[in-house]
Amino acid sequence: MSEPLAFREPARTALLLMDLQNDFIHPDGAYARGGATSEAIAALPAKLIPLAEAVRAKGGWVVSTHFTLVPGRDGEPFISAHLAQVRPFLRRGDFVPGSWGHDVVEELLPIDIRIEKIAFSAFYMSRLEWIIRKTGIDTLIAGGIVTNGGVASTVRDAHVRDLHTVVLEDGCAAFSDALHTTAIEALRPVATVATIAEVMAAWEAV
Fold it and tell me: What predicted TM-score, i.e. pTM, was given to this entire model?
């Protein structure tokens, strides 16, 4: 681990729940409709609920990121070429801001701050960094999907911003165990990697 697992002030810590949205995870969401499902991904909300509750109880922040397909003329979404190629089932109405599919899964509510994102990194062209500076957050606990995509990109961007970041090894998932494991190992030089149980224990010690 690049830094010891310890938390200084709850109010300066945020649990960053990345892209745990209905359109990604719920059986009625866009990805389930397209057959892009994963048991490991579907299991994440239940695993993360106790940590989210613990963070809230001590005055920490619960922040969710929301992958967004921005609707253009006539409601047709802007979809990048690479995404359209790997997820051809995406269509009008998916991941629309303010929609049910765009929101975080119900089990993880309430959320303190929601961040719309349009690319892998939650820092890219979003208000996340502005929110972090305004709230005084200096520590992120990162969980969500996918480990090798949004999680990895966001954690690396947090590192270059001098934010202490803890990656939840069992609180992230990808569409294969191999991708998840490889991504976690690659993040060790830039973040502290720990299990949910280890983070819970360190959090209770604050």
Answer: 0.95
